């Protein structure tokens, strides 16, 4: 890919194919989850550093088989801070998504914007820490391609302490309303732990989102009752080991009422 007329660069991602996936079986299609690491992870963190949790969830039929794509963004807080706002529009949307979904058996029928829009109900984006910030950024810009979002331990403002909660919440609501999609066309499962460094800021943002009912209907039960849920676990810290629980519960709740699987 080339950014701003500069020279092309190479980037990488880990693609997890679910148990039973057969590249020769073009009739079987799979939902897809894009999962973004944090400032001090990489594309291998979830699959290689923390075990086989996703693999086991699928093989044990706890979640439906799906393809998981984990893009790489160079680590470091400053780099992430500068790059997160453009990572979706400059790389994921234009390069990674067409490359992955034109090769593997997803629900996209081609690689035009119309093809991705038509298949948005089969696509989720999630991320941890700074990857959670990336997830909110994708919500701002990518509602035409994604219906489901799992931001974990990170708000729209990277490193936010809650001071920008009202502004951030309103930006998200404005993006949702201006997208033209209704409240039953997108779902957010936000999650963190009560001892996570992101807990204060993310909690403040979610609280500020709740009254913005033109865009969000908050629910603490399931997605039959709303499109925004906030899942917190007492004692969980800011660490990848806790994210498997968050992703598992988010996917299960999406699927429970016929969403994403």
Task: Outline the structure in words.
The chain is an alpha/beta fold and 261 residues long. The chain has eight helices and seven strands; from the N terminus they run ββααβααβαβαβαβα. It has helices at residues 45-49, 53-59, 77-101, 113-118, 130-141, 165-179, 199-209, 243-256, and strands at 13-16, 31-36, 66-71, 123-128, 148-152, 187-193, 228-233. Strands 1-3-2-4-5-6-7 form a seven-stranded mixed beta sheet, sandwiched between helices. Strand 5 (148-152), helix 6 and strand 6 (187-193) form a beta-alpha-beta unit. It starts with 12 loop residues before the first strand and ends in a 5-residue tail after the last helix.
Give a short summary of the structure.
Helices cover 36% and strands 15% of the residues. By secondary structure, it is an alpha/beta fold. A seven-stranded mixed sheet has the order 1-3-2-4-5-6-7, sandwiched between helices.
Q: List SSEs in N-to-C order.
A: EEHHEHHEHEHEHEH
Oligomer: single chain
Proportion of residues in helical segments: 25-40%
What overall form do the CA principal axes indicate?
globular
Question: In which order are the strands of the major sheet placed?
Answer: 1-3-2-4-5-6-7
Secondary structure: number of strands: 7
Number of helices: 8
**Rg, nearest Å:** 17 Å
Can you lay out the helices and strands and say which pair or pack?
Elements lengths: L12 E4 L14 E6 L8 H5 L3 H7 L6 E6 L5 H25 L11 H6 L4 E6 L1 H12 L6 E5 L12 H15 L7 E7 L5 H11 L18 E6 L9 H14 L5
Parallel strand pairs: 2-3, 2-4, 4-5, 5-6, 6-7
Antiparallel strand pairs: 1-3
Helix pairs in contact: 3-5, 5-6, 6-7
